[in-house]
Design goal:
single chain, mainly beta, three-stranded antiparallel β-sheet, 11 strands
């Protein structure tokens, strides 16, 4: 089964790019200068930011559904990221190197299934979950820290 992985749209985050640290702090956002790789996974472009680049750590509502599974958590966004990752049948390296938590949701936002899997072995789990016609979409989180990583839909 074909699947599509997408990163976050950059538009909602552009207003934060370049703001002074004090203004970001008022908004609950923290700027970091990348000093190691991997370690700062940008959720727009779905890749680790390069050493020396600037990233923002902010709270993001990853599951906005009006259901008991509504969820938010901290994520990194690379300042200046402009193009959301969007690829069919390609798992980005930033997911491959992680222990992942896949969560299958109905269109109404109810969780139907979940599994923890090494990123190198994720395709069979994606295919199994999307084979269920009740599943509307999948969310991927880093299993250890719980950060939202991306969305998976049928292609």
């Amino acid at each position: 089964m074909n699947f599509r992985i997408t990163g976050l749209a950059p538009d909602p985050f552009r207003r934060f790019f370049g703001l002074p640290d004090a203004e970001l702090a008022v908004l609950g956002i923290k700027r970091y200068r990348v000093d190691s790789q991997p370690g700062f996974p940008d959720r727009i472009e779905m890749k680790d930011a390069d050493i020396g680049q600037s990233v923002l750590l902010l709270n993001h509502v990853s599951q906005p559904a009006h259901s008991p599974y509504r969820a938010c958590h901290g994520i990194f966004i690379r300042e200046g990221a402009t193009q959301a990752y969007d690829a069919v049948n390609q798992v980005p390296e930033v997911m491959r190197i992680q222990l992942l938590s896949l969560r299958a949701f109905s269109e109404e936002g109810m969780m139907l299934d979940g599994e923890v899997v090494e990123g190198q072995l994720v395709e069979p789990v994606i295919e199994r979950m999307l084979a269920d016609p009740a599943v509307g979409y999948l969310h991927v989180h880093n299993a250890k820290r719980g950060c939202y990583s991306g969305r998976i839909d049928r292609a």
